[in-house]
């Protein structure tokens, strides 16, 4: 599990991204174990509110910079285009 810095503002909160560079199953399993609802899934990553980030790190997520997170997601073949992410949010 990889998590980047919380730097994106939305609705008055800062958010970060959490991904797996192994599989979406691993990502969903981890998110479920640490209490992140499926509605936070954005097709290839979870959006995580800043206040949940320490819990993700304590649960085993590795802190990386955003650029590395995206590079590792692409290298794993899991990165989706924005259009693909929008179409897959429901599953």
Short summary:
With 91 residues, the chain is an alpha+beta fold.
Detailed description of the structure:
With 91 residues, the chain is an alpha+beta fold. The chain has one domain (2-84). It contains four helices and five strands, in the order E-E-E-H-E-H-E-H-H. The protein has helices at 24-33, 53-58, 66-75, 82-88, and strands spanning 2-3, 8-10, 13-19, 46-49, 62-63. A hairpin with a 2-residue loop joins strand 2 (8-10) and strand 3 (13-19). The radius of gyration is 12 Å and the shape is globular.
Average pLDDT, rounded to a whole number, is: 90
Fraction of helical residues: 25-40%
- How many β-strand stretches? 5
Distance between the termini: 20 Å
The helix-strand sequence is EEEHEHEHH
User: What share of residues are in beta strands?
Assistant: 15-25%
User: What is the subunit organization of this protein?
Assistant: single chain
What is the domain tally? 1
Which stretches of 5+ consecutive residues score pLDDT under 50? Answer: none
Number of helices: 4
As a whole number of angstroms, the C-alpha radius of gyration is: 12 Å
Shape: globular
Strand count, sense and barrel status of the largest sheet are: 5 strands, mixed
The SS-based structural class is: alpha+beta
């Amino acid at each position: 599990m990889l998590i980047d810095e919380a730097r994106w503002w939305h609705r008055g909160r800062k958010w970060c991204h959490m991904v797996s560079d192994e599989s979406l199953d691993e990502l969903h399993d981890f998110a479920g174990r640490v209490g992140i609802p499926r509605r936070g899934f954005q097709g290839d990553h979870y959006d995580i509110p800043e206040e949940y980030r320490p819990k993700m790190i304590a649960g085993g997520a590795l802190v990386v910079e955003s650029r590395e997170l995206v590079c590792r997601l692409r290298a794993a073949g899991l990165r989706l285009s924005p259009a693909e992410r929008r179409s897959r949010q429901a599953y």
